[in-house]
Amino acid sequence: MPSGTIIKALSGFYYVKSEAGIVRCRGRGVFRKQNISPLVGDYVEYSAEKDSEGYITAISERKNELIRPPIANVDQAILVFSAKDPDLHTTLLDRFLVVIESKKIKPILVVTKMDLLTPKEKEMIDEYISVYRSIGYKTIPLSSKTGMGLEQIKSIFDGKVSVFAGQSGVGKSTLINALRPDLQLKTSTISKHLGRGKHTTRHVELLEISKGLVADTPGFSAIDFFGMEPTELSFYFPEIRDQMSGCKFRNCLHVSEPKCAVKEAVETEQIQAFRYQHYLMFLKEIQERKQRYEK
Ligand SMILES: Nc1nc2c(ncn2[C@@H]2O[C@H](COP(=O)(O)OP(=O)(O)O)[C@@H](O)[C@H]2O)c(=O)[nH]1
Ligand SMILES: [Mg+2]
Ligand SMILES: [Zn+2]
Fold first, then answer.
1. Ligand with minimal distance to 191 CA
2. Mind listing the domains of the chain with CATH numbers?
3. Which residue of 44, 114, 282, 284 has the fewest C-beta atoms within 10 A of its own C-beta?
4. At residue 61, what are phi and psi to the nearest 5 degrees?
């Protein structure tokens, strides 16, 4: 039976991209009984009555599933942050990284608007970029205005389903437009002109960029640490995870425990102080939430 990926769901139809092209499929009642409905990103089998029409017969088991936007089988999240305007927001960046790590999705960092930096500002941003690279995150500085970095980013989409994430105004739509000029997604200057930001569409579609699929709507708008245990947090900071086996206490939270290898690594600057500060900040948040809701 032919198979493919659902790239769009609209008005009761699922658009499946397969080797045969795009086939418009209906779901079948059987899914409703099983209490699952096909999602964009699902890998499905279908039965085609005509070349361009058919119905879905089976949904492959999902690797993961996002709620907002509703999409299955996400391989990687492209975290878009601007170097300036708005300023690089490392607290928010680390927050995104923790949530994405916890969902076992691979993060890739993109730093936009590099063209806006003075040489002095560029030095500082380059330093942050090298910190994140040293932790092991692929980090791509770019400018959608000058085209710098665009060739490099094209190759990361190949064979993967990606979702963009990042606060509004950092240049996500502008970047997608630079990669696929034919799409003409609305950017904020245009929406301001129309009176209000129109980025709240519920409907999601996977766009082809290079040899991959990319969600046209940003994901991870809710970035709290819901359901996370205090002891889990260390695992979502790779450089802390690397050190913690050296801590004296097995359940060390790296706050004020004696013989803590993580705190020692902060002192010797193997772990960056700002990353450790964010760890402490998030830990406190998780502990306070637990106290509030779980007593
Ligand atoms: N100078 C410069 N401006 C950019 C760049 N990327 C986006 N912008 C501007 O930043 C603003 C917000 O961009 P937009 O793509 O709408 O951000 P989004 O909310 O993340 O989708 C727009 O005015 C863009 O023209 C860039 O690389 N360089
Ligand atoms: Mg946008
Ligand atoms: Zn410790």
1. 1
2. 3-61 (2.40.50.140), 71-215 (3.40.50.300), 230-293 (1.10.40.50)
3. 284
4. -60, 140
**Range ranked top by mean pLDDT from 31-45, 76-90, 188-202:** 76-90
| Token output for 64 | 């993961």
Query: Quick one: what percent of the chain has pLDDT higher than 90?
Result: 73
List of residues 6+ apart from 33 with CB closer than 8 A: none
Could you read off the pLDDT of 165-175 as tens digits, one per residue? 999 999 999 99
Ligand 1 lined by 218 (C-beta under 6 Å): no
Q: What is the DSSP string of 161-208?
A: EEEEE--TTSSHHHHHHHH-TTT----HHHHHHTTS--------BEEE
HSE on the CB side for 140, CA within 13 Å? 20
Mutate to test the pocket of ligand 1, among 187, 193, 196, 200 (most ligand atoms within 8 A of CB): 187
Whether 30 shows a pLDDT value over 80: the answer reads: no
Residue 46 has pLDDT above 90, yes or no: yes
Residue 275: CB atoms within 10 Å: 19
Measured in Å, residue 29 CA sits from the centre of ligand 1 at 44
- Lookup: tokens for 223: 């970035």
Tokens of 67: 């709620």
Residue 271 burial class via C-beta count within 10 angstroms: exposed 0-12, middle 13-18, buried 19 and up = buried
Which residues are paired to 47 by β-bridges?
55
Instruction: Tell me how crowded residue 284 is: count the other CB atoms within 10 A of its CB.
Output: 12
Q: How many helices (H) and strands (E) does the chain have?
A: 9, 13
Which pLDDT does position 191 carry in this prediction?
43
